[in-house]
Design a protein that fits this description.
By secondary structure, this protein is an alpha+beta fold. The chain has one domain: Roll (Nuclear Transport Factor 2, Chain: A). Helix content is 49%, strand content 16%. The chain is built from 10 helices and 6 strands, in the order H-E-H-H-H-H-H-H-E-E-E-E-E-H-H-H. It has a 6-stranded antiparallel sheet. Helix 5 packs across helix 7, helix 5 crosses helix 8 and helix 8 packs across helix 9. 42% of the residues are buried.
């Protein structure tokens, strides 16, 4: 069972998006003032670290403002995290066989509704996320690799640490994350199991409407320890 901040950190690719430079000992994520400028092609660890630094830097500048206005959190996620998340590929895996029969419009509506559902349910938790809640491990990636895993730990509200691992793939646009495994549980698999039966019985539009209504997906509720 995990608190809301851990769930959001993982599922939104949020503040847990952090990593130490390659081939250095594990270390806490540094307090950041903004995302460093990219130089050349970034590896998985740099992609993840830069996203975290930008997010945490902006949060730290005026945390009270983000607490008062959840819409600002969405702006941060859009700016720092979504560019490094392969939303289409991840959604395709979540929908599984139903992706093939969905129209282009349904696919995009599903992606948008899922993302906004996460922010609606847990956006406020992200405002409380700080760099000292992260522990980051280095990732060694071979030059010709097309897949990579970036391992991190996220500190829960009670002080326990939860493993949060990011699975990335190399795309023409650079390294992008496509799955997050929180304490051994894949979010892609969890949501596929959650949405599959409803799509089978009622169609993909029913899931989209459910997400757009603000209803918390079952996989989130189970992960957060809430019904």
């Amino acid at each position: 069972m995990r608190d809301a901040a851990v769930v959001l950190a993982g599922l939104c690719l949020a503040a847990a998006f952090a990593s130490a430079p390659a081939q250095t000992p594990p270390a806490a994520a540094p307090q950041a003032q903004g995302a460093p400028a990219a130089t050349g092609e970034e590896g998985p660890t740099e992609v993840v670290q830069n996203a975290a630094q930008g997010m945490l830097g902006d949060l730290g500048k005026d945390r009270d403002a983000y607490r008062r206005d959840p819409a600002k959190i969405a702006q941060l996620v859009d700016k720092y995290l979504l560019p490094h998340f392969d939303t289409a590929f991840s959604a395709q895996l979540v929908l599984g066989k139903y992706w093939r029969t969905a129209t282009a419009e349904q696919r995009q509506h599903f992606i948008d509704a899922f993302y906004h559902s996460l922010l609606t349910n847990y956006g406020s938790a992200l405002a409380e996320f700080t760099a000292d809640r992260l522990k980051i491990y280095p990732t060694k990636v071979e030059p010709d690799a097309t897949r990579a895993t970036v391992r991190t730990e996220v500190k829960r509200d009670n002080g326990d640490r939860v493993a949060v691992n990011y699975y990335l793939r190399k795309t023409p646009q650079g390294w992008k994350a496509w799955d997050v495994v929180i304490d051994g549980i894949s979010y892609v698999n969890s949501y596929r199991e959650d949405f599959g039966p409803q799509i089978e019985q009622q169609g993909i539009d029913s899931v989209i409407k459910r997400l757009e209504s603000g209803e918390k997906p079952e996989a989130i509720g189970k992960s957060s320890g809430k019904s």
